[in-house]
Amino acid sequence: NFSFSFIFFFYLPFPFFEERFCMSEKHFITHSFNLFFSYNPLKIVTLFIVTLLQGLTQGVSIVLLIPLLGLLEPGNGSSKTSGWTAFLSRFLNGVGVEINVTVILVFFVVCLLSVAVLNYYQSVLQANYQQGFSYEMRKRLFKKIILSDWIFLNGKSKHNHIQILTTEIPK
Fold it and tell me: With contact defined as beta carbons under 8 Å apart, do 60 and 68 qualify?
């Protein structure tokens, strides 16, 4: 009960913050995406493409395992196989590689390894982007704090300002 009320307390919006930054959810999402995209567009597009490739390689490796194992049946015509397995069968026969369990398992392991490499690359890219974005936002915030109208702020309650600067910014 204590932990729920403790968490609930911190998710309540601060009155100062709510009055100052009240905007619609659609505008908030659009503004946030523009901030993310404008920070480093090439890196976020690369991250998006890596995520798509990761999903594609995961799907291909799992979906093609059973049809590829079906190629091992003797007398299995290409009419029973899907387009991808028929293409892979023609490609391997054209290269001169005989289809056996070892070749299929090596192909499957290569697919799983590419998923793992793309997952690692995505994690590193995402962490770098997130840290760089946080650093840039903090730098902009502190610049605005330095350039703010201190005479006006000195006349207001300092409790809300201190609370936001000390607890909300590091998050």
Answer: no
**Structure tokens given for 74:** 């003797």
Tokens of 27: 């505008």
**Within 10 Å of residue 61's Cβ, how many Cβ atoms?**
19
- Token readout for 91 is 């490609």
Phi and psi angles of residue 141, each rounded to the nearest 5 degrees, phi first? -65, -45
pTM given for the model: 0.59
Structure confidence by residue, pLDDT tens digits, 82-141: 677 778 778 888 888 888 888 888 888 888 888 889 899 999 999 999 999 889 888 888
Q: How far apart are CA 59 and CA 111, in angstroms?
A: 10
DSSP state letters, 108-169? HHHHHHHHHHHHHHHHHHHHHHHHHHHHHHHHHHHHHHHTS-HHHHHTS-HHHHHHIIIIIT
Rounded to whole angstroms, how far apart are CA atoms 86 and 90?
6
In 3D space, the residue among 56, 58, 80, 57 whose CA is nearest the CA of residue 68 turns out to be 80
